[in-house]
Amino acid sequence: MCSYCIVPFTRGRERSRDVASIVEEVRQLSAQGVKEITLLGQNVNSYRDDSQGDFSSAAGSLAPGFSTLYKRREGGLRFADLLDLVSSVDPEIRFRFTSPHPKDFPEELLHLIKERPNICKSIHLPAQSGSTTVLERMRRGYTREAYLNLAAHVRDIIPNVALSSDFITGFCGETEEEHRDTVSLIQAVKYDMAFLYAYSLREKTHAHRNYKDDVDSQTKKRRLAEIIELHRVLSRERSGELVGTRQLVLVEGPAQKTPGVLIGRIDSNKKVVFPLRELPSSAQQSAAAVPRVGEYVEVLISEAQTGSYLQGTPVRRTTLATFAATPQLTSPFLPPPSFSTSSFQKIAL
């Protein structure tokens, strides 16, 4: 129920699918050879299934320093329980989730992400603003300090995590000082990816009823350009930290604009391009072969082309479990005409 958001009025109250149906869908997708699944919801990590009884779960607690407008219900299976169950179905399937709210990142969830190799170390922490006063008008339920503490806590538990975020600039009444707070928060956290927007008023929202959209369009554009440029520089620096490391790439297919090149994504969701060639497998008895869509390839990163695009040299075909069991090859990063998408699925929760 953020003051700017129209979603509750267009999609209705939050509701959750039962755990059993989601686990069964994951099993079916595993049988079909799917290698990456995204769990979808809004807010995905406020998931709660009480269809099998009133299970008590500490995972229902809010992150420290966060509050919510609606009454929290106790019991039921929470998002950490669900993520534990689905990621146990097949160790060769990568799992991602979106879009979460920062209030629902309890200790159990963070430790599960750290410990389970097939849960991507890529977390979306939508901040929306770096100003406590703007966050209050947005009804986000946290302060700047609480958000920064959470981001630091996430990185303490998951040192190689990649963080992404959302920001809205030019929200109702936003002053230049409040805008500078957003700039400084982006500088402090150094996101790997970010989705940046100028505020656009939506009817029926709390902001429409209670505030004025009083930041002029030119100011919005200027502030948006500032944070876009800042994020571009910082994300490029983050990607540069990956140069010289070996990364596990899930092959998506041929690069559209460059013949003889494959493209895929690493754990942090950054794209990697590398030459198409026959590669040996981590299993010594397996003959060399050209990597196919849905296969994992170990790639030595040689260049950070942009904040979200990397270039590398392929080393070998491998598996997620094999790569995860080789610590010295993991990253210290703190953080097509016939192309098939059948290896990548999204499940709505």
Short summary:
With 349 residues, the chain is an alpha/beta fold. Helix content is 30%, strand content 21%. The protein has helices at residues 7-11, 19-31, 79-87, 107-115, 132-138, 144-157, 176-189, 206-210, 217-240, 320-324, and strands spanning 36-40, 48-49, 77-78, 94-98, 122-124, 162-169, 193-198, 246-254, 261-265, 271-275, 296-304, 309-318, 344-348.
Draw up the topology in text.
Layout: H1 7-11, H2 19-31, E1 36-40, E2 48-49, E3 77-78, H3 79-87, E4 94-98, H4 107-115, E5 122-124, H5 132-138, H6 144-157, E6 162-169, H7 176-189, E7 193-198, H8 206-210, H9 217-240, E8 246-254, E9 261-265, E10 271-275, E11 296-304, E12 309-318, H10 320-324, E13 344-348
Helix pairs in contact: 7-9
Give your account of this protein's structure.
There is one protein chain. With 349 residues, the protein is an alpha/beta fold. The chain has 2 domains: 7-240, pyruvate-formate lyase- activating enzyme (Alpha-Beta Horseshoe), CATH 3.80.30; 246-333, OB fold (Dihydrolipoamide Acetyltransferase, E2P) (Beta Barrel). It has 10 helices and 13 strands. The strands form 4 sheets. It has a 5-stranded mixed barrel with strand order 8-9-10-12-11. Helix 7 (176-189) packs parallel to helix 9. The model is unreliable at 328-342 (pLDDT under 50).
Strand order of the largest sheet: 8-9-10-12-11
Q: What low-confidence regions span 5 or more consecutive residues with pLDDT below 50?
A: 328-342
The separation of the N and C termini measures 19 Å
Give the CATH architecture of the largest domain: Alpha-Beta Horseshoe
For the biggest sheet, the summary is: 5 strands, mixed, barrel
Please provide the count of β strands: 13
Helix-strand category: alpha/beta
Question: What count of structural domains?
Answer: 2
CATH topology of the largest domain: pyruvate-formate lyase- activating enzyme
CATH H-level homologous superfamily name of the largest domain:
tm_1862 like domain
Task: Count every helix, treating DSSP H or I runs of 4 or more residues as helices.
Answer: 10
Spell the H/E element sequence: HHEEEHEHEHHEHEHHEEEEEHE
Residues in helices, as a percent range: 25-40%
Identify the CATH class of the largest domain.
Alpha Beta
